[in-house]
Design a protein that fits this description.
The structure holds two protein chains of two kinds. By secondary structure, chain A is α/β, with parallel strands linked by helices. Chain A is built from 15 helices and 29 strands. In chain A, helix 11 links the parallel strand 17 and strand 18 (about 350). Chain B is an alpha/beta fold. In chain B, the strands form three sheets. In chain B, strands 5-6-7-8-9-10-11-12 form an eight-stranded parallel barrel, surrounded by five helices. A four-stranded mixed beta sheet of chain B has the order 1-2-4-3. Classes of the chains: A alpha/beta, B alpha/beta.
Chain lengths: ~525, ~400
């Protein structure tokens, strides 16, 4: 396989799964021309005039859709670890004897480990989407026939919109839908809040199947997915295990060290002048990010500061802030707990967004770059502030990219991370997999100090004389190496490339090698 | 005949620790069986460390099994040494890590002791980050938080921690066991720059003197010139009765603390939030300490989740006259420091009084007055202390007089 060095000096393939791939050229450097991809023109004459597109079962729907060997089937991940639909789709395809399919999920979860069997027996050729747990291990060990392609949420929209990836059949699990195919995620037994991750699929796929277990009479309000894009509707007894879709309550961390990191992050935002009336921020649903939001909330309360908008994933804590009037809006990409679902259903300030509005790089701007601050995790960060979010230091695929890459566009990107986990340093000389260029990562907050990217002289100036522990990233890294007893050994990887990591513009920023077991 | 000893813990839930089994054989050399959670990153490093450490300990013919869960090097060595000793009670080699530079800082008799964080001596996963939470004192505990069967393991672990772990300026304290076992603990602790020893359940000044004497002997044996301070803890009716004598037992006593869990058990009652049951004992300890010229230190607040309760208990302790509080969770430390700090209005008033006092002194006046009010000597004394504390906790610049002008 031919590999070339990209603009970050990483060796990447120039061809991925038979298609030409462009090596990463730098932030904002790759500007393709041409027109967006478009699905075929359809005619209302070919669809039931009474709007009833219901077919008896998934197998019939797949047959009607013209499922053939080698096709691409997409799905979304709002049902998270409770999703039953993707598994049923591939079980039906397997029963039909289909082979060499490509699965394009917006993310995969442990509940999808049955896909390994489909890959073993040839039904699935490969997966382009996040892979972790058993799927990550399968891919990391080089067992998948094709190359994995990991994209950010915005990058998935970009790839579908630009035609980098073509969806033959989109299967959209819908917590509530009507016979016309209008669908919503904010109600029904498998309610998950919204369906933004399926929006691109519904617009660009050749064929769209909506699958629901809560059929309502037309019209389904709201229609997060428009029935006018939908070919068929299938009704199942159950599309998801509600207890695994959202958690009843989201846990804030109890770890004193993580609380310290979260508190330092909030204090940093304060001293950097970010926390002002009308500001905006995004923090994930991980324990440290949630705690950060709580420290920020207390600070806002104390001083009577109000945010203009907060970007979700939403949790009860963000909902509380909205209801308390600490923010005008939640611009939400996914709801993580039941309170988030309830709020989205009830509160006109809790807005349903999609990767198009929030993250898509090949659009006329997006929300991510307007955020005053974003707080993200990472598995590793190197001395040049480059960060890894997909692999563990042992080289194995561990996480999907999610919206992580897209969020790096914010005005201030902060990574609150422990400087080491158990014995494994998080601050390293060179990241195992480079997912985020250092020029976009502004601040690292660890329990051992805060490192500001030397490229952000403005932040360094603002924090001069601060009582916060501002240190250089090398200094913190050296201290960690002294504690853990030296630098870690490099992972034992082979030459085979098992997955490509795509940047927000579709270029290849890095790749993952086969891990020798 | 083979002799087997094991130490430490392993299993999927264990973090930053390891289990080591040493099985001595008559011949056959050394065989290592090492598995590690961090094998891809540190497998070779661990292999090398264990073989070198076995050589240093003189383990030549043995099977050594290590199940590692991300233990740091000083933890691996402590577990290996303990396992080797358990396999052979006559074993007398030690594996003392090199003293790190960041472990050599000193303390002072009159330093602040507002917060002291308890760390269970046999739980190394808590050690390395504890100092980041900035307690005034860090207690590596050998007493109540360590199971009886693990006392030997904890001694070894605490010794290694004292030589390796950076506690970032916190006073390095160890709580020893009661009685004979506590005296024996000192051999493991004193040569390693421990700043202060907490002596539990003290009921008689002689207990303090015994500890002090043994410390001095150990320091002499090791040619170390250092003072190890003492903080006796009063945890019984008898102890409370003799509070002053205990506080005044020897010159190295710098603080006297009260432990209410054991005290209330001793008098046959339970701790209440209001604390009526311990009023006398706390007053006794407070007055005993002040009379002997040492710091009076209050008990711990044990409900980790109740920040408001903690704050109230500190306000109460402060008004009682105590200058320190025990912490069992790092998140309590900041609350302790903030609440013990002088309030802004209190500090502003104190500054004015101090200035008035100094002004009167420079003019040779016998009477200090502020506006039309006369200021008594005890008020001046309290104001001086408030200003002093404010400077120590960073609320006030040492050069504050210039700023006032």
């Amino acid at each position: 396989m031919k590999l070339v060095k990209n603009a970050l000096g990483r060796l990447v393939p120039v061809e991925v799964n038979g298609k030409k791939a462009t090596p990463y050229m730098g932030v904002g450097k790759f500007k393709p021309d041409g027109r967006k991809y478009a699905p075929p023109i359809r005619t209302a004459a070919d669809y039931p005039a009474d709007g009833n597109k219901i077919v008896s079962d998934l197998a019939t729907a797949l047959k009607n859709a013209g499922l053939k060997d080698g096709m691409t089937i997409s799905s979304h991940h709002h049902l998270r670890n409770g999703d039953m639909v993707a598994n049923e789709v591939f079980a039906a395809a397997a029963a039909m004897g289909k082979k060499d399919l490509m699965w394009l999920p917006s993310a995969s979860f442990p509940c999808h480990q049955g896909m390994i069997e489909h890959m073993e027996n040839g039904v699935i050729h490969h997966i382009e989407g996040s892979m972790n747990g058993p799927l990550g291990a399968y891919c990391s060990e080089g067992k998948m026939r094709g190359m994995g392609v990991l994209r950010s949420h915005g990058g998935r929209w970009q790839a579908i919109q630009d035609g980098d990836v073509h969806i033959d059949i989109a299967v959209i699990a819908a917590p509530t839908a009507d016979p016309f195919g209008n669908a919503t995620g904010d109600q029904g037994p498998a309610a998950c809040g919204l369906l933004g991750f399926a929006l691109a699929d519904s617009i660009y796929a050749d064929h769209v199947i909506v699958v629901t277990d809560n059929l309502v009479e037309f019209p389904c309000i709201p229609w997060q997915i428009q029935g006018n894009n939908v070919d068929q509707v299938v009704v199942l007894d159950q599309i998801g295990d509600a207890s695994k879709i959202v958690s009843g309550t989201t846990q804030i961390t109890k770890s004193p060290d993580r609380l310290l990191i979260a508190e330092l992050t909030a204090k940093f935002c304060d001293e950097a002048g970010i926390v002002q009336d009308g500001f905006s921020f995004q923090a994930g649903a991980g324990g440290t990010a949630l705690s950060f939001a709580l420290f920020l909330r207390d600070m806002m309360r104390e001083r009577g500061i109000k945010a203009r908008f907060v970007r979700g994933g939403s949790t009860q804590y963000l909902v509380d802030m909205l209801e308390e009037g600490l923010t005008d809006y939640i611009l939400d990409g996914q709801t993580f707990d039941l309170e988030g679902v309830r709020s989205m259903h009830e509160n006109s300030g809790h807005i349903n967004t999609s990767p198009f509005t929030s993250y898509n790089f090949h659009g006329k701007g997006n929300f991510a770059s307007m955020l005053d601050a974003v707080v993200l995790g990472a598995t590793e960060v190197d001395v040049n502030f480059n960060a890894n979010v997909v692999t563990h230091s042992d080289g194995k695929l561990l996480h999907g990219i999610g919206g992580w890459m897209n969020c790096l566009a914010s005005k201030c990107t902060i990574l609150p991370i422990p400087s080491f986990r158990d014995r494994i340093p998080v601050l390293v000389d060179d990241v195992t997999t480079l997912c985020g260029p250092g020029e976009l990562i502004d601040v690292i907050v660890t329990e051992r100090g805060i490192a500001i990217n030397p490229q952000r002289q403005d932040l360094l100036d603002k924090l001069r004389g601060s009582s916060l522990p501002i240190r250089s990233i090398e200094e913190i890294k050296n201290e960690v190496e002294e504690i853990v007893g030296g630098k870690p050994e490099a992972p034992d990887v082979g030459d085979k490339v098992v997955a490509a990591i795509n940047w927000v513009d579709g270029t290849v920023i890095d790749c993952v090698r086969e891990v020798k077991s | 005949m083979s002799k087997i000893g094991e130490a430490g813990r392993s299993g999927p839930k264990v973090r930053s620790d390891c289990r080591v089994v040493v099985e001595y054989c008559d011949k056959g050399g050394l065989s290592l069986d090492i598995s590690s959670k961090v094998d891809p990153m540190y497998g070779e490093n661990i292999q090398q460390q264990i073989s070198e450490s076995c050589a240093k300990l003189g383990i030549e013919n043995a099977k050594v099994t290590v199940e590692d869960r991300g233990a740091l090097p000083f933890v691996l060595d402590a577990r290996l040494e303990t396992a080797a000793r358990r396999a052979n009670p006559e074993f007398d080699a030690t594996l003392v890590p090199e003293m790190r530079k960041h472990c050599t800082y000193k303390s002072a008799a009159d330093r602040l002791r507002r917060s002291r964080l308890y760390l269970p001596g046999n739980e190394p996963k808590f050690f390395v980050n504890a100092g980041l939470h900035n307690p005034d004192g860090m207690i590596l505990d050998l007493e109540d938080s360590v199971a009886h069967s693990e006392k030997d393991a904890a001694r070894c672990m605490v010794r290694n921690a004292l030589r390796v772990v950076d506690f970032y300026g916190a006073e390095r304290m160890v709580r020893i066991n009661q009685g004979e076992m506590g005296i024996a603990d000192l051999d493991w602790i004193v040569p390693h720059n421990v700043h202060l020893i907490l002596i539990p359940k003290v009921e008689d000044p002689q207990q303090v003197i015994d500890v002090d004497n043994r410390i001095k002997e150990i320091l002499k044996e090791n040619n170390i010139e250092q003072t190890v301070f003492l903080m006796p803890i009063i945890e019984s009716a008898l102890g409370a009765w003799k509070a002053y004598e205990i506080a005044a037992a020897c010159e190295n006593v710098v603080s006297l603390a009260i432990g209410l869990e054991d005290y209330t058990a001793d008098i046959g009652t339970q701790r209440t939030l209001e604390g009526g049951e311990s009023f006398w004992a706390r007053a006794q300890v407070l007055n005993g300490a002040v009379a002997a010229g040492v710091q009076p230190i209050d008990t711990v607040f044990s409900d980790v989740g109740d920040e408001e309760g903690l704050r109230n208990s500190i306000i109460e302790a402060k008004s009682f006259g105590f200058v320190g509080k025990g912490c069992i969770h790092p998140r309590q430390i900041d609350v302790v420091h903030k609440t013990f700090a002088p309030e802004t209005a209190e500090l502003e008033k104190a500054k004015k009084i101090v200035l008035a006092f100094e002004d009167a002194e420079s003019k040779g006046l016998g009477v200090v007055s502020l506006g039309s009010k006369m200021i008594d000597a005890p008020v001046v004394k309290r104001a001086l202390r408030t200003v002093d504390v404010a400077i120590q906790v960073g609320m006030l610049n040492a050069e504050w007089r210039k700023e006032v002008d």
